[in-house]
Amino acid sequence: MAKYAYFPGCSLHSTAHEYDESTKAVCKKLGVELVEIPDWNCCGATSAHSTSHLMGVALPARNLAIADGMGLDVTAPCAACYQRLVASYKEMQDEKTRQKINKVIERDYKGNSKVVNFLEVFTTSEMLATIKAKTSNPLKGLKVACYYGCLLVKPPQLVGGFDDPENPQSMDNLVQALGGEAVQWPFKTECCGASLFLSIEDAAIRLTNDILKIAKDSGADCIVTGCPLCHQNLDMRQSTANNKFDVKHDMPVLFFTQIIGLGLGIPASELGFKAHFVNCTPVLKKVGAA
Question: pTM here?
Fold first, then answer.
């Protein structure tokens, strides 16, 4: 059984609780043990590292230090949390930096606990084979636009080695293992503008509208993502884009753990679909899970 120190981050305990709910349901089904890091703190995304480099390293380093004491590698469902944890892990490999940060966080992090991309937990060759074997409700006929966004696979110098930064395939392979179809589309790693919404709203809405339009034009029934910020933006802002551009977006946006759950036959009521802004019933009906 795979076992990880689980860093839910602020979003999975609030605005993306359906991601947390579906994650735990799926991991239980697949035999993946998640041990939540006790007394975890916010990773600092995105404000901390943009205002203080020291704080940007220290905040995630404290969580890594706790996981280090647990003797476990860390995984974080939120793409932004993942980025901050990886960045801190890499900086803490430097002995002088580690000594400095350890004094700040008042813990002894030795740099042993690595950070595993949450999508990678489910897309190794072994896990894909397990998922395929355990799929009791194949997602036959479901066309999915796999949306990685700009944090899961970029920049390559930070998260390199996990997947192709321009044309990633891991989520596509996951959809196929579940019996669905991953559509080919050019916007799978485009930024949705979530972090710009408060400062440059027009740009954020334009980016959101473009992604929704291209996904629909590519024949997708839904968009699937692994980032709470992307999910919130693409799901919640559709009505704003509709009003601004005089369009009629009605595209369900799901977390990849939710489609795994559907494929594994987990009841939709246990996967958090009621928390979505855009009605997911068309997707559930298509896969016989309504």
Answer: 0.95
Closest CA to 260 of 194, 202, 177: 177
Q: Where are the domains of the chain?
A: 3-118, 136-286
Rounded distance, CA 108 to CA 39, Å? 16
Is the Cβ–Cβ distance between 11 and 78 less than 8 Å? yes
d(CA 199, CA 208): 15
The C-alpha atoms of residue 254 and residue 277 are separated, in whole angstroms, by 11
What is the per-residue pLDDT across 230-262, written as a single tens digit (0 to 9) for each?
999 999 999 999 999 999 999 999 999 999 999
CATH class of the 136-286 domain in this structure: alpha beta
Measured in whole angstroms, the distance separating CA 272 from the mean position of its chain's CA atoms is 15
- What CATH topology corresponds to 3-118? Glutathione S-transferase Yfyf (Class Pi); Chain A, domain 2 (1.20.1050)
